[in-house]
Amino acid sequence: xxxxxxxxxxxxFFVDKEEKEKMDIFYSFLDVLIANPPEKLxxxxxxxxxxxxxxxxxxxxxxxxxxxxxxxxEKNTKLIYISGNHDFVFKDFFQVxxxxxxxxxDYVFICGGKKYFVSHGDEYTTNDLQYHxxxxxxxxxxxxxxxxxxxxDLGLRTGKFMSRSSKNFRKSRKSLERxxxxxxxxxxxxxxxxxxxTIMGHIHNPRMIELExxxxxxxxxxxxxxxxxxxxxxKVELRYWK
Length: 242
Prior knowledge:
Elements: E1 2-6, H1 17-35, E2 40-43, E3 51-52, H2 63-74, E4 78-82, E5 87-89, H3 93-97, E6 101-103, E7 106-111, E8 114-119, H4 129-138, H5 141-148, H6 152-160, H7 173-192, E9 197-200, E10 207-210, E11 215-218, E12 227-232, E13 236-240
Helix pairs in contact: 1-2
């Protein structure tokens, strides 16, 4: 088996020079996957900087990304999509048109006899109270219904002002360490339950850490690092496309 994991592309629906460069790189990556398709492609959240699924509308800027994902699934790659903190309002587009499996929080699979737990990770960060409070509001049914009443042009443009998906926006090292501590502590709990690997995103800090009873992996992002994880029956490797 061959499994590819990515997260935190944060594709925007307004395109400037930086965004075009990022997307050209990502499309070259998808083209190689289409030519040599893995058994699974796992997207661990925040593929899009904003994804709110209206009943009859999707952002036209995302067409090429969705088309390439469709081409990949037509090559019998199973697409797994785990909600992030920027793309969590899913109805049925991915399931019906891309034949994807969509998960709100986490996904578990076994490869080469090892047990993997995959999540975007925002649920498990620590020292991030303001974000967790905002998340509760944004994910409420009332918020979804109210946002859904807005015209798509207005609703999606609102997301532009919430975007911080730029190379110029980086968390401080101290803040990053505080938040990642929660991911590592949660991983240790999972290792006690028999998991061998945890795979997270969210904090944009690509690395693998061998802990006492398992391995914690952060997928990084496709804004600064162009990082992804490749898993086979024989090895687990954090790689960089650019």
